[in-house]
Amino acid sequence: MTYKRLSQPIDKIAIALITFLALIIGLLLWGGTTCDDDCIFHPGAKVNDFSWQNKIIGGEDRAFILTFNRPIDRASVEQNLAITPPLPGKISWSGLRMAYTLETPAPYGETYHLALAGARDRYANQAQQGDLIQPFTAEFRSRDRALAYIGTQGEEKGRLILFNWTQQQKSILTPENLTVFDFEPYPQREGFLFSATDVNQGETGIQGLQLYTVSTSWDIQKVNQNNPKVKLVLDNQEYQNNKFDLSQDGKTIVVQRLNRKNPHNYGLWKITDNQLAKLITDAQTGVFLITPDSQAVAVAKGEGIAVLALETNAQPIDFLPKFGQVLDFTADGAGAAMIDYHTDNPKLSSTQSLIYVNNLGIQKQLFNTEGSIQNCQFDPTATHLYCWLTELVKGDLYIEQPYLAKINLKTLQTETLVKLAKYQDSTISVAPDGLGILFERLGSTYPDGSPNNNTTTMKPSITKSNSIWLAIPNSSQTNATAMIVEQLPFVGFRPQWLP
Amino acid sequence: MNQLHIAFTLFLSLLVEAIPFLLLGVLLSSGLLFLIDEKQLITRLPKNPLLGSVVGSCIGFLFPVCECGNIPVARRLLLKRVSPSVAISFLLAAPTINPIVIWSTWVAFGNQPQIVIFRVLFSLAIAIIVGWVFSTQKDTRLLLQTSFARRFDSIIYSQSENTEGKPLLLQSGSFILDGGQVLPFNNSLLLDAGQNSAALKSKGQFFVDNLLQEFSELGGMLVLGSAIAAIIQVFVPREFVLNLGQDTITSILAMMLLAVIVSICSTVDSFFALSFAATFTSGSLLAFLVFGPTIDIKSIGLMASIFKPKIIIYIFTLVAQLTFIFTLTYSYFF
Which residue, among B332, B333, B334, would best test binding to A if mutated, counting the most A CBs under 10 Å from its CB? Predict the structure, then answer.
């Protein structure tokens, strides 16, 4: 009877297939239990994805994510995760994903190895110890440490020079006929935006400034070919191009321009996606800086700072009446360093204050001086602010003595890194990996007034031109126990680290 | 008392979730009665059993219904004399291989695209394999549940009789007299409107009649299925099932068991599965997402209205085995 009931073709094939599938299941289960490391598959847990695998990371890359393929014993991962050379960081979990946030940016020019072995999987309410995870190793690199400056000697004169510190390679990026005035690197190191005068056009000085881009290649073989492409972005036919700023996303350029025929026609222009320049505002504006979100520009306007959206005929999004200038934004845009010139208070009008403002509405006075605040830049972790400040030397003559200071934003403690004898225009460039500060010095003077209790290693300056210096403050971040100030073997000005 | 309350809540929530889809399925099924010409449908569908299964698996793109709504449509396809391989692969694939479910899975698992991709691939493969297995059975009636097979017979019979032009009253079967008109008893849902021009009812009336009958019949099964699912969920709590998952293999089995018990609709099951993403393997989540839409307690009742119990056992076993094989292999490699 039973046989008859199961005599249809469907019964035969279904039962045969069910038996066959049961055999396959048996094989799979047997394979899973007997499989060792040399198997084509790993039955235990493993790392499914590592977000920095073979990636070249920059200062803006602050966290990687490890994704596991099943529930994992978190403590065992935290204990067994090893990065060499070490990169201190904090671990946080979300489901099967572990995020590792670096405390400080990874030092540039290094190859890092990540290894995870000995961790175990873990299921809910699991009584015994879980299976061992498949050992995982991976590699990632940080960008080559590199700096750029405008040369002042020999064939480098007036040209943009790129020095790859890690590879110890120098290359001249711009042609001889262009005299570079200022430059900014693109955020992903694709190239530089620079202003320069063309010797062939005969106009020198600020009136002859045109904006160009130059591409850079980080492939060593291509660098050796040394064939950077220079492209004109903005000419000076109708307008004189005074200053420019490049947004952090590298997509927008803001230029302060003046009509060459009508000096009252003055304003801020923006260039996006290689389109023609468009006027943002025709108001008289001073120093300006694009906000880190690349959506607005902070402009000194009248007796305050206006934040204008990057659009034609922009209306102010915000107006900060108290401040006279924005010096720098933190990388995440949450904070800014500003100068208060005390124009509203006659008693204090001879002084300037450095104010830290953040998006929680906190305003903190960091510093008050009778001298001047020249230039400031946040360090990558936004815990310190590095500034060129001047000290008013008491006497008959009005003498300002510049010095480079490191200001702790929490404790407000100020430390002098370098003191210069004479006033000069000072630039500052804080390394994206926190290594140190690049600055230029005029003439052949020696650094004086080095901070007490700090050893200063110096090589004598032998040139009479601008020389480029590096200050490495003592900090846990750089593992430097004592501050180092050293002259680098370059002659030029506007030294800048590449992002 | 409290447990009764919980069971009632679960029962109602299952019903509320499923009834709109059942209604949609019944509407589609009643629509098919008029819209699709049987001869054209049969000539257009591929004769090859494997191709038939592939086509059947993809019909879900036209009828985006979940596992409650696809049963009336599958019934209608069988009554339209579509081969069982097409109907069964449609039955198994339609709840997953349709735009709404793929989209909702993507919304839930967008950061793990492999789950979305493998859910579709595994469901498709299972539907095609099981559909192809059923293509070996030439006599469709032997697959069907007795009362449904009788209806199936009567259609074939009434069609062949009608072509001979016999008066309706002289055909075999039970008939009633309604206001002087002759109507086959309880068979409105089986007849084809195109061939039933002899019937005096308007097409609209016919559509509504079919709709009501199918809905009441399948709705009854759904109520029963939901009640059983709710009771089991009270006596076998989710925590108990989840605690069964202690390694790769048991976690797949636990999630398959959970899928059967919770009987959650395929349109929303991805969000339910997402809540286990941190505690279960992605292979076991896939098992839940592949197995759940094809087999669950709630829809077994509905399937019982079409197929013989042994056929349901075959389908259930094959789908369960294939799901386990696919998802365990996935676990080993991903």
Answer: B332
